[in-house]
Amino acid sequence: MRIAVPVAHDEVFAPLGGAEAFHFYEDDHGRIVRQFLVPLEQSGTAAAIALLERYGIDALICGSVSDEERHEAGAAGIMLFPNAAGKADDAALAFLSGTVVFDPSNACNACGHGHACSLDCKSCTLR
Question: How crowded is residue 53: how many other Cβ atoms within 10 Å of its Cβ?
């Protein structure tokens, strides 16, 4: 399986099209066997999804995602695992351990606004 995490300063980043790069991981039965970093050459969701498709990414671990990003990832056949935070390596290891949940809708009601978010309600701009 090929996994991608959008990053800025090695931290999980959102939005996808604004990331500095994507950290790519390849696993073999739950163990990372290869990892590398690929800079995002152009900004925007379309450029990010095109990069993920070019590298044959199966799963995308990310922070919050917009409806457009969710739709584009789904159309590309990429499983979406939003609401991650922290170091990219930690997010990839959490995914491989099975503690990250597939959530194609990424809708959150934790702060009562029902929008796509990273579950960091302290920083919710709708509060």
Answer: 15
Give 20-27's long-range contacts (Cβ < 8 A, gap of 24+).
Answer: 22/48, 22/51, 22/52, 22/55, 23/88, 23/89, 23/92, 24/55, 24/57, 25/92, 26/1, 26/2, 27/1, 27/3, 27/96
The DSSP element (H or E) to which 88 belongs, if any, is helix 88-97
The predicted-structure confidence for 28-72, as pLDDT tens digits, reads as follows: 988 999 999 999 999 999 999 999 999 999 999 998 888 889 899
Residue 44 has which token pair? 């925007």
Residue 14 CA to its chain's centroid (Å): 8
User: For residue 68, what are its two tokens?
Assistant: 């457009």
Predicted TM-score (pTM) of this structure? 0.80
Determine how many CB atoms are found less than 10 A away from the CB of residue 58. 14
Q: Are 54 and 42 in contact (CB under 8 A)?
A: no
Residue type, 51: L
Radius of gyration of the chain (CA): 14
Kind plus residue range of the DSSP H or E element containing 8: strand 2-8
